[in-house]
Amino acid sequence: MASKRRVAILSPVAWRTPPRQYGAWETVAGNIAEGLVDRGWDVTLFATGDSLTRAHLHAVVERGYEEDRSIDPKVAEYLHIAEVFEHAAEFDLIHSHYDFMALAYTRLVRTPVLTTIHGFSSPRIMPVYDKYRDGYFVSISDSDRAPGLNYLATVYNGIDLALYPQRKTRGEHLIFIGRIHPDKGVHLAIQAARLSGRQLLIAGIVQDTAYFRDEIEPHVDDKQIRYVGPVGVEEKNALFAEAYALVHLNTIPERFGLVLAEANAAGVPVIAMDLGSCREVIEQRVTGFLVNDVGEAVRALEAMPSIQDSACRSRVEQRFSIATMVAAYERVYASIFDMERQRDGDPHHPFGR
Among residues 276, 273, 278, 262, which one has the least CA distance to residue 312? Predict the structure, then answer.
């Protein structure tokens, strides 16, 4: 029974789980932990010591290294990752959200390890995935997969719908929420705002300071183009209330795009580049528009009245809720337990008994 299964959720330690502002991987790891607790699992969340959870919290790093620059990131990461594997025998499954680094420990323990791949940050990390290709993997979108890995499923990220209530009225401004980085196309959002004559509110952490200085800051006039800084849930909802649309003109294939689901949950239509997972998260002409350039984005703004806020919310409820995500992971866990039982009876398997 699920209630007797013990699972360890390995969250990153860049930020608190859940994060105060930015931190998509921590958000998802925290949501899975909370959803599994609701379903009766015995859950231990390995995260920063200041994390908030109804699961058992296990921490050796007190604060996120992005929030406390006195912490050496590599020291924090290795202490944190090693901790869960040193306690591996206490769990029936380790569910890792720690990218390629945790994979190096997986063959050192008997406990099965499931890795949710939140994206491939660089081709240089792929030799690690190639070495451990026979592990258990889940992708967060069908579009963000690497050939040859043992994928068990695609499980879309789920959000806490209670945090993003559907707004009552539609606003007039364009909004951008995300990392200030060329990958996210903030400069293209500015172009769309200029061409459409609408005000653009930009929110997020500055991840590329040169890009912000050269491509974004010169356009910030605090009138048509405003930068409001990093935002948490409360500030996001304030932006959603003012939004005519969320503009997400990513320049590389999106891996999932958590903010797209958050905006839709609040009833905000999304205009996104048709790259990567955007077409899996956004339903064309139902919850927003998929475009190929700035010109198409501007024309999509003219058609925005055809999008119903309630339709945006309904799609998120059906596809991107915590309950939907956790149910999908339970099916993946069950398949892993079945495969492990078969391996236990295989005398040729290294861990066969």
Answer: 262
Would you list the DSSP string of 246-267?
EEE--SS-BS--HHHHHHHHTT
DSSP state of 165: P
CA gap 320, 35 in Å, rounded: 13
Phi, psi (degrees; rounded to nearest 5) at 6: -110, 120
Question: Residue-wise over 253-283: b if at least 16 C-beta within 10 A, else e?
Answer: bbbbbbbbbbbbbbbbbbbbbbbbbbbbbbb
Report, in angstroms and rounded to the nearest whole number, the Rg of the chain calculated over CA atoms: 21
Average pLDDT for consecutive 10-residue bins of the chain (353 residues)? Answer: 79 97 95 97 98 98 96 98 98 97 97 97 95 98 97 98 96 98 98 98 97 98 97 97 98 97 98 98 98 98 97 98 98 97 68 40
For residue 177 the two structure tokens come to 């929420």
Q: Determine whether 160 is exposed, middle or buried from the number of CB atoms within 10 Å of its CB (0-12, 13-18, 19+).
A: middle
What's the gap between Cα 41 and its chain centre? 22
Contacts of residue 193, defined as CB under 8 A and 6 or more positions apart, other chains included, come to: 174, 199, 200, 224, 225, 247
Spatial distance between the Cα atoms of 343 and 353, rounded to a whole number of angstroms: 8
Q: H-helix or E-strand containing 38?
A: helix 24-38
Tell me the pTM.
Answer: 0.94
Reference 134, options 347, 277, 348, 336; nearest CA is: 336
Give dist(CA 175, CA 238) in Å, integer.
11
- Cα–Cα dist 193/82, whole Å: 47
pLDDT computed for residue 313 by the predictor: 98
